[in-house]
Sequence to fold (385 residues):
Amino acid sequence: MTPPSLDSTQLYPPEPPRAPPTTRSARLLGCPQPLAAAYDVALLDLDGVLYLGPDPVPTAADALAAARGLGMRLAYVTNNASRSPAQVAERLCNQGVPAQAADVVTSAQAAARVLHERLPPGAAVLVVGTDALRREVAAVGLSVVGSADPQPAAVVQGYDPATTYAALAEATVAVRRGALWVGSNADPTVPSPRGLLPGNGALIAVVATGSGRQPVIAGKPEVALHAESVDRTGAQHPLVVGDRLDTDIRGAVRGGSASLLVLTGVTGPAELLSAHPVERPDYLARDLTGLLAAHLAVEPTRAGAGWRVECGGWEALAEDGVLSLRRSGSAQERPDGSVDALRVVCVAAWAAADAGAPVHRVELDATGAQALSGLGAPAFPGNLG
Ligand SMILES: [Mg+2]
Fold:
């Protein structure tokens, strides 16, 4: 017997058209006071910002305590749907960062928000994920089921290292029947001491292959998790702080919030130099101590057929596809001047790219090479291909 087919348009309203992404021009913002005094809430990514796998980032706990002292509230925003806010808060406390469950926002909560917005109260939702995700779905008044047989209105899928073939098969059956399908996040991998392992995006791909459909994603860089974070914190002027361009920074740009990229995680100078306009941060810092500093505006000026950028005693010139960096005689080098060196080369490269003349080669003298290698870029490429 053919199973009854559900008309998905009767279950939930169509997805609204996505507004075109906001982009960032070639510049870094100035802020005359410490960021922690200028923005009311920091929406902090975790891995690569507060810790690196099992290890705390050395400066993180002290910098966050000082940021709090300047009046900034702190919220911790994670794409990982497998752990509850209380579990995340406990880990932060264990590494010297005082946090409560209410300070943590997870993609499981954002996925529950998407379901809540689109389903009638009490609707059945097939959950493929951990108890943390099940609890969030139940908390918004929906009914958690574990099989496709009750004809669930939706399937929600979050990372769970114990996911079985049977669970993925149930999800596939429900999705093929027309259920709304929401993924907590689409990260293809998760870090582990043995290297990268399949993440929720990989598990979603199993169901996508089996069903021929694609899910709605709640986590970064999509807007649901950002909106959930702003709502839960009541932030008026949030500052997103992250280590990844394609999730943290892209999500901030889409959500209309300012962003700070820290260099303690996965993004290095070479990737930053070629950042797409929708993935450019507003501020740049070595680590979370960047929250405690004022920031100089960094903007390009025309120089012949190219672009010149100066900041803190460094000067970058992008012309004819070649980017050069040198010490400038017009200003003293500031403390941690390596970051100023990176700021000027980034803005020069972005300006050249936006003008249709992207940089394909970087020329550094010994001083410039030393400055940038101090930012964890020993293999900073001379030729960007
Ligand atoms: Mg991260």
User: Anything to note?
Assistant: Residues 173 and 189 are 25 Å apart (CA to CA). The domain at 108-217 is CATH 3.40.50.1000 (Rossmann fold). Residues 1-20, 377-385 have pLDDT under 50 and may be disordered.
